[in-house]
């Protein structure tokens, strides 16, 4: 009873704001919106979402962005953590620099990307200065591009220190003795990493990368700034519907938001299951 | 079957001014069980890691059967280390833990299964292969760690404080298990410990390391009978150090004249003797017998400790409680110091 009372403030916020918001979104996605006279719930918004070709293209793009960013940043973060846990001269400084961009907001990072990598950005200008290109379109399209390279670059840049810091702390609390045991039992350096260190840090890698996946799958601002117009990432598509002048498009936006949430949950479930079997089995 | 030889092994950690290990030399004959004994921080674990190849020495050499192994990677040395906290891989079953070394050597899975079964039989845990390490007691975990080490048939086995995490009753069981496996397989074994009792109980020979230097390398009883200096004697619980000098087998000093055994170091120094090797209540005319006054009496359960004054000196003795039940401080009695219980330390 006491525990229940103590948890009440936190729980009420979660229940009211999160589940409340979810409930309203859910009702609207079923076309139940009494304010504009919609009182008969139906599935028409979902039908509209699932029959729209753009939705599938957007889904594939968003999955590509989230999956690629998560995998690349996880692998690079593990590598960075492996280097940073060694002792070397200047380690404190390197460690500080490594974590520095944790403090930079995503939005600021995205604008930086825009300035640096767009076809009229700093790198393009440098390339033109050195005679490597003659006009802006000669510079590879790294932002607003169909492969979402700019978005992925931005996410990787931002998430490596996030995952890296978690894994580094993880590695430091595990220590090096398990690896010493493995080496003395005849494991090579690679085998030691594959069969001992990786499974040991795996829970940390998993939870950090799940957070990154969920975030990159559902985030709006980066694809809105750095993404191509068509197909747009799912959150961008949902927001467009939401701000459509036609209020009737709003249920469709809500349906899309609900679908994004369900898809994230399902994909995370399979990701966790599959990777656990691969690494620890 | 490996003769391990450590020559002038030294380790200075980066940034340290004092060496953690200072020119340690040891010969460990094939198949012997040797203890590296010393207080924590004396360089024992550093030595083990250098033998295993997990740490590079600053100078010196480690040879197996006369061949230097310093350039060999840890996985090629045939040295397996069992850590004090066992370090079983927590996400693997007991059987997978034991089979780990074989899997790394890419042995056929059916063969691994067979040998793991045999090994678990040897450490008397035949039915626990499917469990996770967290479901085992400390003693069981240690046996799994031992099985995991022995299954790869190492040339040299290194044990880090093998008995110190165990209850008193498990200690002897484990001691017997380690000794019998080690003898059966003939593996040259080195273990480190800070506990002199653990060293004495388990080892054929003990190397005492104090302040990064080796003090004495000898059979266990020699540390009690013939310590090389006061620090060594004190580490083994010695209390009695009395000024004097030895000429042949004759001691003369602060507590009179006594007969010494053959071979004691000559000249001025300190007389030492174990508190437990003395006899009380002999006739005052018996050789090597002194008259003493009881200063203090401390009851320790299975034994009683007496502080006796002989002239201006205090000597410490340990005796059977029944023998001194009625003794009280202030009383005088006779104490006999048999020559074979005496030793001289050069100053």
Outline the secondary-structure elements.
The complex is a heterodimer of chains A (281) and B (347).
Chain A: H1 2-29, H2 44-51, H3 53-84, H4 91-100, H5 106-117, H6 122-129, H7 149-174, H8 177-184, H9 189-218, H10 221-226, H11 234-242, H12 250-280
Chain B: E1 4-11, E2 21-28, E3 33-37, H1 44-52, E4 59-64, E5 67-68, E6 79-82, H2 94-104, H3 109-122, H4 138-150, E7 156-160, H5 168-185, E8 188-193, H6 196-202, E9 205-210, E10 213-218, H7 222-225, H8 230-235, E11 240-247, E12 250-253, E13 256-259, E14 267-273, E15 279-280, E16 289-299, E17 304-310, E18 313-319, E19 332-336, E20 342-346
Parallel strand pairs in B: 3-8, 3-9, 6-7, 7-8
Antiparallel strand pairs in B: 1-2, 1-4, 4-5, 9-10, 11-12, 11-14, 12-13, 14-20, 15-19, 16-17, 16-19, 17-18
Helix pairs in contact in B: 2-3, 2-4, 3-4
Describe this structure in words.
The complex is a heterodimer of chains A (281) and B (347). In chain A, 74% of the residues lie in helices and 0% in strands. Chain A is mainly α and 281 residues long. In chain A, α2 (44-51) crosses α12 (250-280), α8 crosses α9 and α9 (189-218) packs antiparallel against α12. Chain A is globular, with a radius of gyration of 23 Å. The model of chain A has no long low-confidence stretch (mean pLDDT 90). Chain B has 347 residues and is of the alpha+beta class. Helix content of chain B is 24%, strand content 33%. Chain B contains 8 helices and 20 strands. In chain B, the strands form 4 sheets. In chain B, strands 6-7-8-3-9-10 form a 6-stranded mixed beta sheet, sandwiched between helices. Chain B has a 5-stranded antiparallel beta sheet with strand order 13-12-11-14-20, with no helix packed on it. A 5-stranded antiparallel beta sheet of chain B has the order 15-19-16-17-18, with no helix packed on it. The radius of gyration of chain B is 24 Å and the shape is elongated. In chain B, 40% of the residues are buried.
């Amino acid at each position: 009873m006491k525990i229940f009372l103590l948890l009440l403030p936190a729980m009420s916020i979660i229940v009211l704001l999160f589940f409340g918001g979810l409930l309203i979104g859910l009702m609207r996605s079923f076309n139940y919106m009494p304010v504009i006279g919609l009182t008969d719930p139906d599935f028409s918004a979902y039908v509209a979402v699932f029959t729209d070709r753009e939705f599938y293209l957007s889904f594939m793009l968003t999955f590509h962005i989230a999956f690629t960013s998560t995998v690349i940043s996880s692998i690079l973060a593990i590598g960075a953590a492996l280097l940073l846990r060694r002792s070397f001269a200047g380690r404190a400084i390197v460690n500080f620099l490594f974590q520095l961009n944790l403090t930079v907001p995503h939005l600021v990072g995205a604008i930086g990307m825009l300035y640096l990598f767009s076809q009229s950005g700093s790198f393009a200008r440098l390339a033109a200065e050195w005679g490597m290109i003659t006009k802006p379109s000669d510079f590879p399209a790294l932002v607003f591009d169909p492969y979402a390279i700019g978005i992925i670059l931005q996410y990787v840049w931002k998430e490596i220190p996030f995952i890296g810091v978690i894994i580094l702390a993880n590695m430091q609390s595990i220590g090096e003795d398990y690896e010493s045991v493995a080496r003395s039992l005849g494991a090579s350096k690679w085998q030691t990493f594959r069969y001992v260190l990786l499974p040991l840090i795996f829970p940390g890698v998993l939870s950090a990368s799940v957070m990154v996946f969920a975030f990159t799958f559902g985030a709006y601002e980066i694809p809105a700034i750095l993404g191509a117009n068509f197909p747009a990432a799912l959150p961008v598509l949902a927001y467009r519907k939401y701000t459509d002048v036609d209020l009737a498009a709003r249920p469709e936006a809500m349906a899309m938001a609900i679908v994004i949430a369900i898809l994230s949950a399902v994909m995370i479930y399979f990701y966790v299951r599959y990777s656990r079997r691969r690494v620890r089995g | 079957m490996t003769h391990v030889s450590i020559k002038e092994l030294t380790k200075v950690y980066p940034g340290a001014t004092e060496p953690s290990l200072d020119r340690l030399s040891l010969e460990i004959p094939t198949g012997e069980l040797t203890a590296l004994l010393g207080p924590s921080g004396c360089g024992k674990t550093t030595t083990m890691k250098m033998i295993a190849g997990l740490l590079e020495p600053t100078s010196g050499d480690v040879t197996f059967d006369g061949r230097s192994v310093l350039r060999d990677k840890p996985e090629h040395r045939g040295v397996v280390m069992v850590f004090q906290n066992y370090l079983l891989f927590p996400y693997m079953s007991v059987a997978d833990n034991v089979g780990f070394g074989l899997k790394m050597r890419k042995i056929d899975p059916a063969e691994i299964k067979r040998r793991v079964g045999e090994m678990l039989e040897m450490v008397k845990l035949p039915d626990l292969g499917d469990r996770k390490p967290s479901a085992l007691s400390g003693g069981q975990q240690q046996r799994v760690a031992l099985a995991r080490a022995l299954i790869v048939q190492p040339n040299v086995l290194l044990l880090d404080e093998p008995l110190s995490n165990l209850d008193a009753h498990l200690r002897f069981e484990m001691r017997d298990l380690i000794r019998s496996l080690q003898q059966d397989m003939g593996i040259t074994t080195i273990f480190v410990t800070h506990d002199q009792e653990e060293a004495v109980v388990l080892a054929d020979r003990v190397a005492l390391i104090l302040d990064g230097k080796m003090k004495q390398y000898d059979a266990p009883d020699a540390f009690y009978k013939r310590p090389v200096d006061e620090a060594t004697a004190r580490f083994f619980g010695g209390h009695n150090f009395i000024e004097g000098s030895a000429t042949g087998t004759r001691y003369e000093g602060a507590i009179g004249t006594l007969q010494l055994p053959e071979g004691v170091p000559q000249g001025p120094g300190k007389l030492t003797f174990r508190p437990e090797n003395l006899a009380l209540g002999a006739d005052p005319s018996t050789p090597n017998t002194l008259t003493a006054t009881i200063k203090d009496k401390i009851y320790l359960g299975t034994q009683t400790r007496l502080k006796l004054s002989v002239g201006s000196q205090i000597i410490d003795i340990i005796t059977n409680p029944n023998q001194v039940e009625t003794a009280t401080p202030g009383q005088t009695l006779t104490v006999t110091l048999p020559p074979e219980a005496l030793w001289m330390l050069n100053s």
